[in-house]
Amino acid sequence: YYLGAEHADIWAAIAPVAPAAFMMTANRAELLKKVADAGVPVMVVHGADDEVVNVSISRDEWVPTMQELGIEHEYVEQPGITHGPVITSSQEDIFCFFGAHSKK
User: Fold this and answer.
1) Which one in 16, 33, 62, 78 has a CA-CA gap of 20 to 30 Å to 39?
2) Which value, to the nearest 10 degrees, does the dihedral of the CA atoms of residues 53, 56, 57, 63 take?
3) If you compute the radius of gyration of the chain from its CA atoms, what whole number of angstroms results?
């Protein structure tokens, strides 16, 4: 999220995977506003059984804020997937998402 917001002008899309955004959650609307203003689509992927970063951070906090800000987004919650394996199990979805969004 941080890099996506700080450099929103260069990205065609961003895809946080099991994002450990603990210290940014309180300021998520301010951070995501930069993404919204730049028109950057977001795909968030999280494993439902993530033992390191609770899935509720994505599902119940970040994604609803994206909805409130009108950010084009997709949320993928992978059942039975934990923190480490979500990195590889999400690649196909992420590359399809990136393929559908290009910098014009």
Assistant:
1) 78
2) 130
3) 13
Could you report the per-residue pLDDT of 7-62, keeping only the tens digit for each? 999 999 999 999 998 889 899 999 999 999 999 999 999 999 999 999 999 999 99
Half-sphere exposure of 102 (CA within 13 A, CB side): 3
Coil, strand, or helix at residue 98?
Answer: helix
The answer for 18, left when phi > 0, alpha when psi is -120 to 50, beta otherwise, is: left
Could you please report the per-residue DSSP string of 5-69? HHTTTT-S-B--BS---GGGGGGHHHHHHHHHHHT--EEEEEETT-SSS-HHIIIIIIHHHHHHH
Grade residue 72 by pLDDT with cuts at 50, 70 and 90: very high
